[in-house]
Amino acid sequence: MTGRLRTNWQRLNGAARIAGVDLARGLAIIGMFAAHLLDTGDGFVWTDPGSWTAVVDGRSSILFAMLAGVSIGLVTGGRTPLAGPQMAVARGRVAIRAAVLLVLGILLILTGVPVFVILPAYAILFLIALPFTGLPARTILWVAVVLALIMPFLQPLLDQLPIWQMPFGPELDAFIGWHYPFTIWIVFVLAGLGIARAGVTRTSIQVRMLFAGAVLAAVGYGLALLPEAGPDPYWRSVWSVEPHSAGLFEVLGSGGFVLATLAVCLLLCRLSVLKAITLPLRAAGAMPLTAYTAQIVVWAIVAGIALGDTQDLGGFRELEPFWPMTIATLIGCTAWALFIGRGLLEWLLDRAAKAVVASQPRR
After folding, report:
1. What's the whole-model pTM score?
2. Is-contact 299 349, C-beta < 8 A?
């Protein structure tokens, strides 16, 4: 057991693991818990500390999307994209992971738990990102910038397509995770992919991320303070800063906020004492799929037993589940990471991808 504990400690804290990325994932997980389980009121207001819990709305899922891009970038070569057969294997495995995530997401939707499951959107975003994995950082980041400025003007039109009013519209919405529309969320994935290509572990890149994120957040949230666009619903949607609105100000403001958050996590984890203090969050961040799935499964079980209805959001929140589930997640993930190792679903996902897409034999 001592040998296994030592090995797992090294896996979680060694140089091969980017502690700041794990910390950011851990924060995203707890943020998703809060968005699901707490009543965050009427929105986040800087000058009202009582509203600060609303910071998790929308931003947690955007952080997840950006971190997905970072992960794709790392498994496809990091600063230098893989080439030839190696890239083909990496892309194939990402595609298999996407397929598994789609199936798992549908299963979680079928539990009836009243949350917008992000996994189907994740699966589609993985596939859309694949063609960009062979590009350099500068190109990927410029594509992200262009899409960030264009897609908020098109998104209201996409949301009004007749297909959403058809009998199967709600099912299609859930199946493709349209609450996190890939037409907008790909901006955050590509931003993460570009960061990985630029060198997410480099101090200079982390400082630039912090500066760029702060500027984008100031611009997006600052412009949102201007008088409203008027009664036209199209322009109100385009200029919206509300969570999950896909408005331009949300893309800039929340995207910048998330970029700065990731930068802060990376910089903080350069300090050994803070790296040690954040171990439980990093352990949860090392197994985000397991933690996210466990939350929904436990929710479905408890709500089914206590309320007789997994869809009763108000009734479940009245049970005040946030802190028990959060603390149990942090303790459980830490114990699992130290005494067992890799997260259960992460291990299964990796084994499935490697079983379907074999490595290229070395010459």
Report:
1. 0.94
2. no
